[in-house]
Write a structure and sequence with these properties.
Keywords: Signal. The protein is mainly β. It has 1 helix and 8 strands; from the N terminus they run αββββββββ. 15% of the residues lie in helices and 44% in strands. A hairpin with an 8-residue loop joins β3 and β4.
Length: 143
């Protein structure tokens, strides 16, 4: 297991070095690094129950990406977007419904969905809100 971890770390280091070369060895973005996200959605008028999920996101060259759950499977959520130099961001959440009591409009299992999040970041934290329908809130903490 230790050998696999070391191999993985070497691959990430090589990837990061290649990314730096591909971007002209530009300085890291002010928001680059690993962030923890807490997504909280209150109960909805249509009867969907409240829920909270936690997951990490990675920011590189001011581009944010993170996944919660197994990619392209029921219950998956991806969060993507660019953080501007002033800390503002419009993020896109897309996922696949898990068809449980938390799903908006009682979406069937496997139903794709997406929504935008308006967010703002500073050096160590950030916050955001879903801009349509159910008002979910996101809290970002830099690790």
């Amino acid at each position: 297991m230790h050998a696999r971890l070391s191999t993985r770390l070497v691959r990430y280091a090589v990837f990061a070095a290649g990314l730096a070369c591909a971007t002209g060895a530009s300085a890291a973005g002010a928001y680059d690094g690993v962030w923890n996200v807490t997504l909280t959605c209150p109960a909805a008028r249509d009867g969907a129950k409240a829920y909270t999920v936690h997951f990490p996101v990675l920011v590189g060259d001011s581009v944010l990406h993170g996944d919660h759950g197994e990619p392209n499977a029921a219950g998956w959520l991806a969060l993507d977007g660019r953080i501007e130099p002033d800390g503002s961001a419009t993020l896109v959440a897309q996922g696949i419904s898990n068809a449980d009591a938390r799903a908006a409009r009682r979406a069937r299992k496997g139903t794709p969905y997406s929504y935008e999040v308006s967010a703002h970041f500073d050096a160590t934290s950030g916050s955001g809100s879903r801009t349509t329908a159910r008002r979910c809130h996101l809290v970002f903490v830099r690790t």
